[in-house]
Amino acid sequence: MDTLSAETALTIVPQPPPPGLYVTIGPQNLVEWALENISKTLADPSRIVWVDGANAFNAYLVALAARAVLKDSERVLRSYHVARPFTAYQLEAMVSEKLLPASRRINALICVIADPLRLFADAQGRDTQIRQCFNRFIIGLQAAATETAILVLAPNRHPLRPPIGHQRIARWWVPRQHPRGMTYEESLLENATRVTKLEFVNHNPVLSLV
C-alpha cells in the first residue's frame, strides 16, 4: 500500500485533477479534515461544488483555515457552492440532474460529495426503492465523472442503533446491500477511479492508496 503525505488536500486528488471518481475513506472526522485542508489549499482561486450529505459544512471552520494560511476568509467562503440534501432521494436528484450544470456554471475544480452513504443508511422506504435510488446515484456519479473530478468522502460510521434494513451481527450493524450483494460502500469503491484512506498516526494524518 503506497503512503501519501496528508499535510494538504492536494494529495486527495491528482493535480490538476482530471475527470474521474475519487473516493477517500477514513475516520468520523474525515469530512471536517477535508473541509479544513481544501480551504487551505484548493479553495480560492479554485471553486468547489460541495454537496453536503454530512450536514457538516462549517463556515467558521473554513474561515479559520483560510486565516491560518493568510487567505482572505470571505473569498475562500465565496469559492464554495454548497448544496445540502436531507434525504437519499434529494441527493440522488442533485447528483443526477444538478451537479454537472453547477460545476460548469462556476467552472469548479472539483465537486465534493460529503458522506453520501449516511443518507442511504438512514433512508426510509422499501429496500427496492432505496436500492434503485442508490443505483441511480452511482450512475449519476459515473456520468459526472466523465467530465469533472468528483471527490466522495466516505467516513466510517458505527451507529448506536440500526437504520431500517440493517441486521445485527454481534456488536456491529450490517448495512443494506444493493442487488449484487455488495454493501453500498463496496459498490462505491468498485466504481472509483482511485481510492485513498485517511488514518491518523500519532495524531498526524496519513493518506494511503487502497
Explain what you see.
By secondary structure, the chain is α/β, with parallel strands linked by helices. The chain has a single domain, classed as Rossmann fold (3-Layer(aba) Sandwich), CATH 3.40.50.300. It has seven helices and ten strands. The strands form two sheets. An eight-stranded mixed beta sheet has the order 1-10-9-2-6-5-3-4, sandwiched between helices. It has a two-stranded antiparallel ribbon with strand order 7-8. Residues 4-10 and 158-179 have low confidence and may be disordered.
Q: What keywords describe this structure?
A:
210 residues; alpha/beta; Rossmann fold; 8-stranded mixed sheet; two-stranded antiparallel sheet; 7 helices; 10 strands; globular
How would the global form be characterised? globular
Instruction: Supply Rg.
Output: 17 Å
Distance between the termini: 6 Å
Please count the beta strands (DSSP E, at least 2 residues each).
10
CATH architecture: 3-Layer(aba) Sandwich
CATH first level: which class?
Alpha Beta
Largest sheet: 8 strands, mixed
Low-confidence stretches: 4-10, 158-179
Fraction in helix? 25-40%
Seen as an oligomer or otherwise, the chain set is single chain
Can you identify the CATH superfamily? P-loop containing nucleotide triphosphate hydrolases
CATH topology: Rossmann fold
Average pLDDT for all residues: 85
Order of helical and strand elements: EEHEHHEHEHHEEEHEE
Strand order of the largest sheet: 1-10-9-2-6-5-3-4
Number of helical segments? 7
Structural class: alpha/beta
Strand content: 15-25%
